[in-house]
Known about the structure:
The chain has a six-stranded parallel beta sheet, with helices on both faces. The model has no long low-confidence stretch (mean pLDDT 96). The protein contains nine helices and six strands. The chain has helices at 18-31, 38-42, 49-59, 66-84, 96-105, 119-125, 149-158, 172-180, 209-217, and strands at 5-8, 109-113, 134-136, 165-169, 184-188, 199-201. Helix content is 43%, strand content 11%. It is α/β, with parallel strands linked by helices. The chain folds into two domains: 5-15 and 89-217, HAD superfamily/HAD-like (Rossmann fold); 18-84, DNA polymerase, domain 1, CATH 1.10.150.240. Magnesium ion is lined by residues 9, 11-13, 45-46, 170-171, 174.
Amino acid sequence: MQTKGFIFDLDGVIVDTAKYHFLAWKKLAQSMDIDFTEEQNEQLKGVSRVRSLEKILAWGDKSISDEAFQSLMTKKNEDYLAYIAEMTEKEILEDVPKILEYLTTSQQGIALGSASKNARAILEKVALLNTFQTIVDGNDVTKAKPDPEVFLKAASQLGIAPENCVVFEDSVAGIQAAKRANMIAIGIGDAAVLHEADYNFTDFTEISTDFISSIIASN
Ligand code: B16
Ligand code: MG
């Protein structure tokens, strides 16, 4: 049995925290009289907190001081963390545990590669913190996806060459980052949107252990 590294994105792959990001950003936007829709929220998936606020301000045609920017970032995160505090294992997306258990039993490398600075707190809430051999999140990287830094760092910490790593991602920027890292990219979500991926699945209920086994056995 070969050892491969399986790197999971967090939001949109393991849990759906996009709905909580939306509620927190929506409150912030409303306080500034900016319109913010679910479609716009889609464009913030996989995007860092700083870049997300820059985009929202641009959509609302607002320009603010650095201090005001910082305090909005803090406020948004406080609101977001209030939602995270209520999370439980029930919020793990369907059949994700099945694949994680199969990979653990198969003695494969398992890592997290997320843009979120709250990744560890979220994994703790859903009782998955100890499932990952290594966690690389928004606190550990200087360059955001589509830069491959987050995934290359995860591969290096697993001690597995990038070409032997597989990334599960729900964002276009994340799929691009995986390809730039020379990894196999598996798109989770809309195949038309994630067309740069090597494989596409709507969600983990479509992923069989036979498929994972064939990836492990491939050269
Ligand atoms: P935070 P992922 C990303 O998580 C989210 O998709 C994105 O919407 C969010 O802005 C980003 O994390 C930063 O999150 O504010 O918690 O640092 O998909 O890369 O796991
Ligand atoms: Mg994501």
